[in-house]
Design a protein that fits this description.
240 residues; alpha+beta; Elongation Factor Tu (Ef-tu), domain 3; Threonyl-tRNA Synthetase, Chain A, domain 2; 2 domains; six-stranded antiparallel beta barrel; 4 helices; 15 strands
Length: 240
């Protein structure tokens, strides 16, 4: 397996980096020695952007991890790739879209703080995001959730990361809010996202903002029934 240093997990605000091409696949996939491009995962879309070198550029339409090898692959558009293995390139992400994903992903953690129920699914989007909850007897109200979310956002809670071992996570199962998907194990440690002192703490490998105040005002657009116990809560930007 070709290993790519995940710069996005070290600094989510880095918008470009220099990298060396390790491989080019038969399906126009490009593997780099290091990358700021976040691969699709955890409900967050893969980054888009460009690779640039020697006056040539290639559009990256998405970024994924190979299901079999775990390699991080930058998926280029159709056509010949004007690069070769060993070439040094400048990798640039579409920052506007990435930053919206960072804000939205952090906001979904706040939604978990507002609704203390198991999460059965979710999706991060640039303009609309959602989480599905197994509510049981817990009652939800669109206006109340919106008010609670915006209160947490306006309180400017810090957003930080910390690491625990696989064993520590196994001994603290309540940290895992997702009911159908478990955080990856096997590398010896798991990254936790922490908001404030006690707002939210759970495993997450996505990209996030440094402070909840960066998210901006949000709005619960609707709540949809997805079964007897499941409800889908959709969130959008409040542009009023």
């Amino acid at each position: 397996m070709l290993e790519t240093i995940p710069l996005y997990s070290q600094d989510a605000y880095q918008q470009e980096c220099e990298a060396t091409i390790l491989a080019i696949t038969e399906r126009n996939g490009i593997i780099l020695d290091q990358s700021i491009f976040y691969p699709t995962g955890g409900g967050q879309p893969g980054d888009v952007g460009q690779l640039i070198a020697n006056g040539n550029s290639v559009d990256i339409l998405t970024t994924v991890k190979d299901r079999d090898t775990g390699e991080l692959i930058h998926v280029a558009g159709e056509g010949d790739i004007p690069f070769q293995v060993g070439d040094k390139v400048t990798a640039k992400i579409n920052w506007e879209t990435r930053y919206k994903h960072m804000r939205m992903h952090t906001m979904l953690h706040l939604l978990c703080a507002v609704i203390p129920c198991g999460v059965t699914g979710g999706q991060v989007g640039a303009d609309k995001s959602r989480l599905d909850f197994d509510l049981g007897e817990f009652e939800v109200d669109k206006e109340q959730i919106t008010e609670n979310l915006n209160k947490l956002i306006s309180e400017n809670h810090s957003v930080t990361t910390q690491w625990i071992t696989d064993e520590e996570l196994d001994n603290s199962p309540d940290l895992v809010r997702t009911m159908s998907v478990q955080p990856p194990r096997g590398v010896g440690k798991v990254r936790l996202l922490k908001i404030g002192e006690s707002v939210d703490l759970q495993p997450c490998g996505g990209t996030h903002v440094k402070n909840t105040g960066e998210i901006g005002k949000m709005l619960v657009s609707n709540i949809k029934s997805k079964g007897k116990r499941n409800r889908r809560i959709n969130i959008v930007w409040d542009n009023d």
